[in-house]
Amino acid sequence: MRQGFRQSMAWLHTWSGLVVGWVLFAIFVTGTASYYRTEISRWMRPELTAATADPARSADMAAAYLKRQMPDAAGWYVELPRPETPLIEVHWWKSLEGPFHNALLDPATGAPSTARATKGGDFLYRFHFELGMPPTVGRWIVGLCALVLLVSLMSGIVTHRRIFADFFTFRRGARTTQRRWLDAHNVVGVLALPFHLMIVYTGLVTLAPMLMPWGLVAAYRAEAPRFYVEAGLMADMRAPAGRPGTLAPLGPMVAQAIARQGEAPEAFAVYNPGDAAATAVATFEEPHGLAHQHPQITFDGETGAILGTAGMAPTRAASTTSTVMVGIHEAHFAGSALRLLFVLCGVMGAATVGTGLVLWGVARAPKGAEPAGLGLRLVRILNLGTIAGLPLGIAAFFLANRLLPPDLPARADWEIRIFFGAWALAALAGALRPQDRAWREGLGLAALAYLAVPLVGLATVGRSPVPAFDIAMVAVALLFGCAAYKAGRSPLGARAARPAQDLSGEEALRA
Amino acid sequence: MGARQERWSGPAYRFGVAGRVVLASLGSYVVASLLTALLSLTLPLVRSEAVTAATLLSFLVITLLALYVFAARSLGRAALTLGLVGLALAAALWLAGGFSAPGPAA
User: Do B17 and A1 touch (CB under 8 A)?
Assistant: First the structure.
């Protein structure tokens, strides 16, 4: 907080960005990877062979399996096989509070899949908004960090006196280290600014029912599910009858859904499958367009007759706005070129956070031989531990997928333990090494780890199931290689190339 | 920096920063929640639309309030403004029936 509006906003930008920066970096990196969630999952299950499975038969197999697991469940959810994911994924739960169980079935046999156990891309996807914590805790932390990021973005924008001119300004030959980091921060921050604003606001909207439920509570009180029905997003559910019933075969219902909609549903859910008033819901992929809105057909679970539909008619303005916001966050509509653009913007988001964090340290680097204070040392350790450590953890996650024995008990958990373990080790090692060497070593190690991923894959399972994944790994390795080279040439922050006489931290932001 | 450093450190400054952080997070959230609840009940739209529109707007409201808390001349002034706005919204929400026992479904 300083005197004057722009100064207090610069102060707010600096400090709000710092306190959530490390979490935001992880959110940006894993979120960006999530755009290729399906491809990552496919790569991590090399045993699968592309096969077209019959959706109706798959649904029957899933029901047979689920009946054995939990006939009196509150719900079953079946993700039907798709060409890019030739698996039946089943989920079942006794209560909406959890626990939620899940399994992968082979669509050829209906038995649990023999592919190596892994969480695949879903781990990175869930980490993006749950940070590997219990869902509610993780989502609140991510939601709060997103709100702080929104505050930080807005205060960062008003800090610029001439935002339009600054948009096109890049001083290549900037004289001081700090000036160069500031320019880098501005370039990646401002170039992709529309994306940053979009992604944080739409991200908040995806968490809105949890973060801001008070409108819903005020208008609907105890009958919150009515909201989703009235908004046209969810089919009306029947309350359980309270007496046991016999669930009709799912296959004919899936066949009816296909006949009616002209395509196979992507998922099939059954609510209260053991009850006389069981309700089955076929959910279809989003139709062409931006909105994240799935057409649904509901069936009477006992007779297999169609009860109704939802998500088919155009929704009203506010609902459409909301579903479009979620849609553009997830970018399911995007083709491969547009998805690559989203990924590049996501990388720039991570780079904005990363350069901002480094800039904080560079701007406060002690002049001459003064030792760095405790706060600065802590920030440097966290910076290195996050910016080099997290990517290293992800590379270790991929390597573990190829190197752990396929039949290891709790194999999927071991992959995740290795992810966190490698991250923690990299952060610890970085904390113990001298600052300028630590950056070069950390980034260089990350480059080598990413380069090793396709090679280890080739050595262990042979031909890659997703060649584009291997190309991406090499590209990421090159990126870290360049960063390591740069860090080796101009040590970060440890000693600014020349003392920044022309500007101090806040002045830099004010400029 | 020297003399200027004085004003930017010390217990009073620290208390001011801590106060603004608390006010910007909790105060902004409470005021935005009250506004969201009020708009959900009073916007001249279908019930589900009013809720959605108000909720979509709420994050912008929180952000602007948080920015105001840090831009305000003093912590007391920011607290007073947010308090008065919050009270006015709470009164309006009470008038709109937001605090009454749930009646029969509309």
Answer: yes
